[in-house]
Amino acid sequence: MSLISDNLQAVLDDIWATEQRFDRPSKSVRLLAVSKTFGAEAILEAAQHGQTAFGENYLQEALEKITLMQSNAPELHLEWHFIGPIQSNKTKPIAEHFDWVHSVDREKIAVRLSEQRPATMADLNICLQVNISGEESKSGVSPEDVVALALKISALPRIRLRGLMAVPEPTSDVAQQRLAFRHLRELSEKIVAQGISLDTLSMGMSSDLHAAIAEGSTMVRIGTAIFGSRNYAK
After folding, report:
1. Which of 42, 100, 115, 169 could join 81 via S-S bond, C-beta 3.0 to 4.6 A?
2. The pLDDT of residue 134
3. What one-character-per-residue DSSP string does 182-225 give?
């Protein structure tokens, strides 16, 4: 087996063991393989071993890989998730090429994605990014404003609000990790109480996936544990 396939299986085993540990239903947590900065060959290797959902942060890089994979391995039917910050001038290619967007944090972006989603495609799945720890350096709607934003976005055509995403302030304190993820889950419950159906909590990365799963994550975003260390040099 290859290194990527070994790593992929180890991550999946860890997720499934953590589900059991915290009495979560079996395979209730999806793995989103974060493939930013890694080439199409790495994605192909993971896909050939069963991984279908891939997360990308950088639009131009992602579009090149999506095109390559659709041309060279169309039988794989991969699912593409945009998880990076979104500028207004980038919404059209995101709306046209991705299946999910995890990083919507304002109404303007959601409206543009709605207007620019091709009618021939399935509705674009949306998660609202919440700045759960209140960090000035991070994107995301404030916890106080997320319910109102969800109500507005849920009414837009051609997009489907699925849930919430967060990247909490890093900490090695598991209790603090769980507190942040619990807060996100409770915000999701407030939105559901307004009559909006949600099914996704995109939370948890390599350093805090156990705390995230314990608090109800349905999708964890894992990159280096699968693909190895990143080289950001361009």
Report:
1. 100
2. 83
3. HHHHHHHHHHHHTT----EEE---TTTHHHHHHTT-SEEEE-HH
